[in-house]
Amino acid sequence: MLTLVLFTPLAGLLVLLLIPSSAKNAIRLWANLTAFAGFLVSLPLVSRFDKSNGGFQMVERADWIPSLGAKYLIGIDGISLLLVMLTTLIGFLAIFYSWTAIEDRVKEYYAMFLLLQTGMLGVFVSLDFFLFYVFWELVLVPMYFIIGVWGGPRKLYAAIKFFLYTLAGSVLMLLGILTLYFQHHQQMGFYTFEIADLMKIDMPLGLQQWVFWSFFVGFAIKVPMFPFHTWLPDAHVEAPTAGSVVLASVLLKMGTYGFLRFSLPLLPKASIDQTIVQALAVLSIIGIIYGALVSLMQKDWKKLIAYSSVSHLGFCTLGIFALNPNGISGSVIQQINHGISTGMLFLIIGVIYERRHTREISEYGGLAHVMPKYAIVFAFAMLSSAGMPLLNGFVGEFTILQGAFETNWVWAAFAVTGVVLGAAYLLWLYQRTMLGQVTNGRNLNLPDLRWSEMAVFAPLIAWAVWIGVYPKPYFDILEKPVAQLVERVRPGYFAGPPPGEAPLAAPPVAPVAPAKAGPR
Amino acid sequence: MQHLWLIPVLPLLGFLLNGLFGRRLAKGAVTAIALGSVLLSFAWVVKTLVGLGALETAYIERYFTWFQSGDLRVGADLSVDRLTAVMLLVVTGVGSLIHIYAVGYMTHEGGYYRFFAYLNLFMFFMLVLVLGANFLLLFVGWEGVGLCSYLLIGFYFLKKSATDAGKKAFIVNRIGDFGFSLAMLLIVITFGSLDFGAVFPAAASKPESTLTLIGLLLLLGACGKSAQAPLYVWLPDAMEGPTPVSALIHAATMVTAGVYMVARSSAIYLHAHAAQEMVAYIGLGTAVFAATIGLAQNDIKKVFAYSTVSQLGYMFLGLGAGAFSAGIFHLVTHAFFKALLFLGAGSVIHALEGEQDLRHMGGLRTRIPVTFWTLACAWVAIAGIPPFAGFHSKDAILLAAHHHAPWMYWVGVLTAAMTAFYVSRAMFLAFFGEPRGHHHPHESPPVMTAPLAVLALLSLAGGFLDVPKFLEPLFPLSEGAHDFALVAISVVAGLAGIGLAALFYVVKPGLADAVANALGGLYTLVYNKYFVDELYDAAVVRPVETGSREALWKGVDAGLIDGAANGVASIARATGGLLRLIQSGNIRSYATWVVFGSILVLVAIGLVGGGAR
Q: Nearest Cα to B209, choosing from B266, B268, B262, B258?
């Protein structure tokens, strides 16, 4: 079942290689069919998923490299289910959108995308650390080529920056994985990469901290967390539209997912260590505010959205390190939300870039007059990203803030400023591009959204409204796995008194008392 | 089941129909959908209230769990109690009148369907705001009306000033929401719920310090939405929107949401003394501050905008003084007379083909008599002349203020005098004297004057609706005897304001300029609205912009982080460059290296081995 979902893109890729390069439309058609099939086969995962079960489901296991103890072991819980669904949908939409956008090296382009698709799905379903690492690295290669071959003018710089940054992270992460691997051998007497086994070893805090930081570098670069974020704006600006969409919507979530699947359960002592928790929360908060402020001042439309990702992902990591059910479920939901809304925002840019071939905000203005449908869709994307209630972003943000507040109200107070600034940079962008008179003659006759473009946005808007109006199914799916995760990191969390009476950190009972040493 | 959900959903349907198909629909159909949905909603409100009878306790309908995470469950629940009933009648009643008026006002404007779609959407969110049975649903409406306000202020989106004003409104409101959000988070921690029905009864048992903090944070939110100091700056700019919008959103309904929210949370404020005191201070301060600015404005809508800020301050004064019902009472009467003032101003502007400057008006009394006489009703109402609407509610607030702290009463009376003065000034400048413009004024069509007439009646007689009595089950009436002297003083103050304005602008025109010149700097200060916008710009907006661009983006991002990353890259490259020297491809140099290496190894073995032996 899960194997089918995982390898459908790869199987499609093998067939794709047989189609001659000159038959561009045949290649496009086949790639679209494959991606759509990839989405269709993932749908049964939702109906078959048992949300009352907190463990991994639909597990498939086979020996792979017995001499190393590496297995082919895949399965999903609520967290990975949502990310898998995001991946199959966004992947399909990105491939669908590319039909007109890509003209040269069509075959290679779609081959890269399908390979990327399998890589990302593999990351989210692997339950064996070795397998995970293979997929993690596999993702790097197609993304490198997508940016480097089909990108903008500075594509090589961006692609190499992306590659080196993430590779550096991966190497450190590998050291951490190997540490766990050998520790397990020492304690249990056999070699394995299976997460469930690695969870059983007992490591002293010092070692856990060391491994935590090694994972941290790998995951934080991917997210990206401040100060490892500078590859992101370059990569986004140069990447082709579909590349940006997948990069923002799915690829970044590999980092946050890594924290949830590996750092927290494998290194519970380090994850609850105050120094580490404080450090990660502070970096998240800096990311939220810093990303928003820098975003505010961008002159390049795409760069602005790229920096906004830094801010939004800051919310996601803050939620994780609130280490309570609200924070973590909010974080996962916000990861999906960011995929939807930022995906839309990058598509919005793609639409206009295809028409005008510039991303300079000052080149635009008054587009609402020329392209009314486009203006409405953009407004949806903007509001969803800015956390307007009844759209998706609000649900995630509010839940994360609730979680953060439960742990340390100062975190929440700082994070909320990110919400204020979020409205500022998005509305200002909207005003400068869409409202006012058409000041640039070249924008006077731009065609409005085509049906095919509307078709890409429609499912995303519908999804945004669904999560905004009725998010309960999502919370239900996440409830059990998140509870297990919290219980793993903070044993006895659910047995103790309700958080209203004995929260982890001091609640704000004294209003006039000066804020305890703020996180900055 | 009363099917409360129909009340907000009807306008939402209007929005969806007009928003999706309005472009292709005939104008008549757009009008029918927009008006019909709001009138039906009003009818449903009346039917529901009749059906619910005395409404001694809150009536709640629960639909579904909106979201549930951790211990927090938030339901899509709507509820009606007497406070909601008052708000529902004001919102749908006055809202319907303004919709009718807008049909006439907007008839020659482009984007007719878009305007009504936004207006209906606003009604939806406003009704969610007042019907929501928990803080989060209230917040949904709260953000939603903010969005509609943004869209409608920027309705003339080709004008930069309009889109600027819309953006400013949204962002300043978001600053208020900062407080509201934190307040909700704190409420969840403290009470474990966001339901009004769970939070308020438990308030008495919680520590006062926590309640005070919640109260102050909620107040910050209210200051944003209800344009109180220091967050009032967006409301005067919001006058860029079409005039019916100013009447509906920026006078009668949305801006009173903060008042409603504070009154709704009365259980918290009653146990948070400092927070409630703060409400009174902010209200009083805003009331007098905005009134002084109103004295010197020349744009008729700006005068009324500052008046709105000032009157909202009055309502907060009432709330802060513990007279919650008086605050709501003033909210109701203010909705009548301020909506009328704006719609009347719109009628004047309509008659003068867009002229808004009072200095270019004059002598309109005989040219557009219906507008004049209806506006006159609002005039006496806001000036606090008995027995008209504003008198009753203002009187209730001032008495409560006196009961609370006598000096607050006196500041309130001073504000009342200024209020009477600036409204009279606007009336005299517009309707009396000689025409100063080159216009050919024409009276507005009946579709516009009819709502004016209804509102005029309400402004005259609305004070006899005993709102405080009706709200007594929720807000116990304060004791305090009806002190005749205090009432008389405030009435005299109002009359004095009117008299002074008459002296300045009718009896001795020119005296106003002389006084302004004599005041010099003070006048310049007030005329320029105390330079608050400029101050905010210099103290907040520009530092944030410059700091973000120069320090963060160019400094930290490009300089520090990329500098470090590139530094690592350069070191790597330099190392690689050095190592490359070794790999020259030259056999002889390789041979040399081999020899050197061998010698080195031998020496090393010799040393190590020697040491071991």
A: B268
pLDDT of residue A8: 93
Q: SS3 of A35, please? A: helix
Q: Which two tokens stand for residue A224?
A: 């990206």
| Residue stretches of chain B with pLDDT short of 50 | 611-613
From B257, B195, B252, select the one nearest B222 (Cα to Cα).
B257
d(CA B67, CA A392): 12
Closest alpha carbon to A333 in A459, A458, A477 = A477
**A419/B548 touch (CB, cutoff 8 Å), yes or no:** no
Which of A325, A402, A472 lies nearest to residue B65, judging by beta carbons?
A: A472
**∠ at Cα A412 (A408, A418), nearest 5°?**
155
User: How far is A114 from B257, CA to CA, in rounded Å?
Assistant: 52
Query: To 10 degrees, the CA torsion angle through B224, B226, B232, B236?
Result: 130
Query: How many helical (H) and strand (E) elements, i.e. helices and strands, does chain B have?
Result: 27, 2
- Taking an 8 Å cut-off on Cβ atoms, the answer to whether A388 and B147 are in contact is yes
CA distance A270 to chain B (A): 24
Look at residue B178 and give its three-state secondary structure: helix
Q: Cα-flanking dihedrals φ and ψ of residue B556, to 5°?
A: -70, -50
Beta-carbon separation of B158 and A403 below 8 A: no
A214-268 tens-digit pLDDT: 999 999 999 999 888 989 999 999 999 999 999 999 999 999 999 999 999 999 9
**Angle (deg, nearest 10), helices A78-101 and A451-469:** 160
Average pLDDT, chain A: 90
Identify whether the C-beta of residue A232 lies closer than 8 Å to the C-beta of residue A306: yes
Are B320 and B279 within 8 A, CB to CB? Answer: yes
Interhelix angle B446-461/B82-105, rounded to 10 degrees, is 150
The proportion of chain A whose per-residue pLDDT surpasses 70, expressed as a percent, equals 95
The dihedral over CA atoms of B93, B98, B100, B101, expressed in degrees to the nearest 10, equals 150
What is the CB neighbour count within 10 angstroms for residue A497?
Answer: 8
Q: Which residues of A touch B557 (CB under 8 A)?
A: 230, 294
Q: What angle do CA A116, A119, A125 make, to 5 degrees?
A: 140
Single out the residue of A221, A228, A263, A1 nearest to residue A132, CA to CA: A263
As a whole number of angstroms, the distance between CA B467 and CA B472 comes to 9
Closest CA to B170 of A401, A291, A430, A310: A430
Q: Is B50 exposed, middle or buried (0-12, 13-18, 19+ CB in 10 A)?
A: exposed
The residue that leads in pLDDT, A499 or A108, is: A108
Q: Helix or strand or coil: residue B60?
A: strand
pLDDT of A503: 43
- For A135-193, the pLDDT digits (tens) are 999 999 999 999 999 988 888 888 888 888 888 888 899 999 999 999 999 998 889 99
Q: Give the Cα separation of B285 and B192 in Å (integer).
A: 35
For residue A498, is pLDDT > 70? no
Q: Which residues of A touch B213 (CB under 8 A)?
A: 508, 511
Residues of A in contact with B545 (CB under 8 A): 296-297
Least-confidence region, from A190-199, A407-416, A506-515, B468-477: A506-515
C-alpha count within 13 angstroms, C-beta hemisphere, residue B221: 26
DSSP of B63-130, one letter per residue?
Answer: EEEEEEETTEEEEEEEEE-HHHHHHHHHHHHHHHHHHHHHHHHTTTSS-HHHHHHHHHHHHHHHHHHH
Q: SS3 for A319-361, per residue?
A: HHHHCCHHHHHHHHHHHHHHHHHHHHHHHHHHHHHHHHCCCEH
Query: Nearest CA to CA, how far is A121 from chain B (Å)?
Result: 27
**B532/B537 Cα distance (integer angstroms):** 8
Label residue A470 exposed, middle or buried (CB < 10 Å: 0-12, 13-18, 19+): middle
